[in-house]
Amino acid sequence: MNHAIISCLHANLPAAEAVLNDIDRQGIDTITCLGDLVGYGPQPNEVVELIRKRGIATCQGCWDEDIIDGLNACECSYPSQLAERRGHLAHQWTDDQLTDENKSFLASLPTSLRRDRLLFVHGSPNSQHEYLLPDMDAFAALERVETAGADILFCGHTHQPYVRELRDGSIRVRLQNADHGNDQGEELTLPMRKIVNAGSVGEPRHGSTNATYVIHNDATDEVEIKEVAYDVGRTCQAIVEAGLPKVFAWRLSHGFEFAEQAEDASHVCER
Amino acid sequence: MRSHQGKCGYLRLDGYPSNELEQVSDSGIDKAFLKDQFPELIDLSGSHHASRSQQGDLLTLIELPQFQAPQHAGITGMDPRVKNQLEALQLHPDRYLHFGRDPELPNKDTLEFKKLEYFSLSLKASVWDPPSLNTLWFELVNGAYGDVYRAKALMNLPDGRSMFFNWIVSQESSQFLPLEEISAPNGRPASLSELVVQGKHLDGLRIQSTIDLCLLNDAVLEMHQMPLRDRQKEAIPST
User: Fold this and answer.
1) Alpha-carbon distance values, B74 to A136, B80, B93, B94 (Å)
2) Residue-wise pLDDT tens digits, B56-109
3) Which of B141, B203, B211, B213 to mutate to test the interface with A (most CBs of A within 10 A)?
4) Of A38, A135, A170, B238, which has the fewest Cβ atoms less than 10 A away?
5) Are B117 and B200 contacting, i.e. CB atoms less than 8 angstroms apart?
6) With contacts defined as CB-CB under 8 Å, which chain A residues touch B214?
């Protein structure tokens, strides 16, 4: 059966509506959302209410968490002073706009969702703030999936959709035993695991302005990354009318993120 | 200039506006960059220096902002108004280098500019957060604050370096050149720091407010400079 995974809606209502319409057209009725319903974009209440109205199973993203718990960023959150200050500005604006009811909804979201051997998180099983970048060290990536007890880990947060298969791995451990004067060795063959990143609905970062999401078939394990065009101009107009920085609209209309993000694939989030 | 054995001089003349194309007043960026590369460079901008231009071995680079290439090649194509400016300074040019357009640029620009306005900002004593500078420059030359025809700057970095930034429309990428002189890690640098932008529909207020988000305050600058001072102390052998 096909099910859809969406992530990082970032208060972009036209993008969220376009993606949900695309999913509906395919007759898919199981949708999982990996969080970041709000942040940077101009329609935080509208997007939260759309997800609530549709009853979409959702886990909490880093922006959703920050709105509830306040900012407490690790260095991986902002790669520059400019990005940090823009992020704080957007945080404050979103905090001012969101209704108490919608904040309560964000606070109620779990940090992960599990269906059998499938695990759904925003960033990584460790933290909503940790980036599982596509070129992350393979051993570290496998460790994230394996210790979470999943066969397939669905995540978002990077805004770059990708499918990464971790296979043909092995670890050889050799123990020097002084008492017995011989080496004891063991080789572990690692099982195949998969990381699927759904990209971003509201703030895509894959070289185009199209929203992305993922369809997974849980019988065949086939994964399809889908792109959906939406009315970017409508969102940009709403950004300007909301009084958010105009540069957010410019960046979105050119397929850039609102504020750039760290790209150090070796960084481990310390939050 | 690098291969010239004798002394070198530099003179920048004022250009002339053309229709609605507005000339930028001299920010001193080019002179400061050349002076850094050639510390012995003689600045011929003041008339009192004009007599020095008569020295036989002096190679003088004369820069003139202009929007169109001259109708005739070589010295004969020179604008008579420029000739008059030079004669007043007792300068008689013997070579016309080039119009100023790099040969790799297309003849037709990727953006059309029939009207040019300019924005300039003194950044004296300002020090940038380097990744923020990277973002600001990217946004600036790609049109986030209006269509940019030309952008040039000298910017200070927290490690004491100063960088020359240079961009022209149709060019694939910017030129970034470090200056030779490095400021001591003691507070704010005194070297020239300026940003000049030519283009259309430039939103100077938004450029300024974005720059404000990119500059380091005293406390953060000190965090950068303290380890540099410590390293300098370690490098000096005790007596």
Assistant:
1) 58, 13, 10, 9
2) 678 888 887 777 767 777 777 788 888 888 887 777 777 776 655 566 666 666
3) B213
4) B238
5) yes
6) 80-82
The Cβ of residue A69 has, within 10 Å, a number of other Cβ atoms equal to 9
State how far the Cα of A256 lies from the Cα of B59, in Å rounded to an integer. Answer: 47
Give CATH for domain B115-228.
Answer: 3.30.1220.10
Residue owning tokens 């880093």? A62
| Mean pLDDT for the stretch of residues B182-195 | 94
CATH 3.30.1220.10 region(s) of chain B?
A: 115-228
Q: How far is A85 from chain B (nearest CA, A)?
A: 7
Interface check for B13 against chain A (CB to CB < 8 A): the answer is no
Helices assigned H by DSSP within A26-124: 44-54, 62-69, 81-97, 100-108
Buried-exposed string A178-198: b where 16+ CB fall within 10 A, e elsewhere: eeeeeeeeeeeeeeebbbbbb
Residue of A76, A80, A239 to mutate for B, most B C-beta atoms under 10 A: A80
Interval A106-129 mean pLDDT? 94
Question: In chain B, which residue's Cα lies nearest the Cα of A256?
Answer: B139
| Tens of pLDDT, residues A175-224 | 776 666 666 777 777 778 899 999 999 999 888 999 999 999 999 999 99
Phi, psi of A90 (to 5 degrees): -65, -35
B182 in contact with chain A, both atoms CB, cutoff 8 A:
no
ipTM of this complex: 0.83
Q: What pTM was computed for the model?
A: 0.84
Question: If one looks up domain A2-143+150-164+194-253 in CATH, what number appears?
Answer: 3.60.21.10
Residues B83-98: b if buried by 16+ CB within 10 A, e if exposed = eebbeebebeeeeeee
**Cβ-Cβ contacts under 8 Å for A24 (sequence gap 6 or more):** none
